[in-house]
Amino acid sequence: EILGEPKENGNNNKKIIPTRDGDGIIFISYDGNVYPSGFLPISLGNVREKSIVEIYRESELLKKIRASEFKGKCGICSYKNICGGSRARAYTFYQDPLAEDPACPY
After folding, report:
1. Within 10 A of 1 (CB to CB), how many other CB atoms are there?
2. Taking all residues of the chain, what is their mean pLDDT, rounded to a whole number?
3. 10-59 confidence digits (pLDDT tens)
4. Are the beta carbons of 26 and 35 closer than 8 angstroms?
5. pTM for the whole thing?
6. CA dihedral sign, ordered 31, 32, 38, 43
């Protein structure tokens, strides 16, 4: 029960635990660098210098991702707390990891 009770999905009453880049999922490279995902090349710190827990909890970018503080259509999407779009695609296209996902068809 480390994660707590699963959240209710208002659409179909199934219990879900949303995970996405930087929210429940992070990437640690072979050299200890921590990234929001394996495809998002923004280093958040290094586990050789700081604990993974501290990096995860204190990163300003991860805080914004977990709070769904997205821009554009991702920012107003009713699924932003579940999906959140691809932060890596947003960064590649707009050079902003909080921008809208340019490939989202919704």
Report:
1. 4
2. 85
3. 544 445 555 577 777 899 999 999 999 989 999 999 999 999 999 999 99
4. yes
5. 0.78
6. negative
Contacts made by residues 70-73, CB under 8 angstroms, sequence distance 24+: 70/98, 70/99, 70/100, 71/96, 71/98, 71/99, 71/100, 72/99, 72/100, 73/100, 73/104, 73/106
Maximum Cα interatomic distance, the chain, rounded to a whole number of Å: 44
| H or E segment and range at residue 20 | strand 20-21
SS3 content of the chain, % helix, strand, coil (to 5): 25, 15, 60
In single-letter form, the type of residue at position 44 comes to: L
